[in-house]
Structure formats: structure tokens, C-alpha cells
Amino acid sequence: xxxxxxxxxxxxxxxxxxxxxxxxxxxxxxxxxxxxxxxxxxxxxxxxxxxxxxxxxxxxxxxxxxxxxxxxxxxxxxxxxxxxxxxxxxxxxxxxxxxxxxxxxxxxxxxxxxxxxxxx
Length: 120
Prior knowledge:
Elements: H1 12-19, E1 24-25, E2 27-32, E3 36-37, E4 43-50, E5 57-64, E6 68-76, E7 82-87, E8 93-101, E9 107-108, E10 110-111, E11 115-119
């Protein structure tokens, strides 16, 4: 005689979905209000995020040295998926900036194009 194996009634999808983590790609675009400003004055950097939900953190980063990017101003993405950050040139010369969208929910880190604000 063959043994009867009891079946457990369950929905397999919650088990399968809890282990499947699909990362998505978001994109960030940012534009400074002015490309040059006096040292110590604030320059608004406006932009938008596509693909990622609102409430994610967003970071304005400045290049220190040749390769080290540091966050100088954090903010949150608004419900309209737009954001406004503030850049403050700290010395005379060309200062490279970029905007970073770090890992948020199921979205991978994304960066905007680098842009220059010249301190006068």
C-alpha cells in the first residue's frame, strides 16, 4: 500500500515574494538656479526624481579633492517627486556638485550629472 501524504493548504505567493527582491533603477536630474555666486551666498538647486517614490532622501554632494564626494545638504523628495537643495560656494573657483538618490525602498542608488557652481 502507498502512504498518503497530507497536503497543507497555503498560498505560495507570500512565501515566494518575501524572498524575491527586485531592485529598480530611478533617475535624478538637477539644475542650479545660478552657475556663479558670491562666496557664502546660497544657490538653489532644483530637480526631480523619476521612478522612485516620494519621501526618499536626496543628497547634494560636493567634490573634495580628486575623487571624494561628501554630502553637504540632505533633503527629502516631495510628493510631487521634485526637490530643492541649497548649495553654498565656500571658496573662489569652480566647485563641482552632484545630487545622489541613495538606496530607497527597492530602488538602487542613482546620481545626477555633475554640475559646476563658480564661487566669485
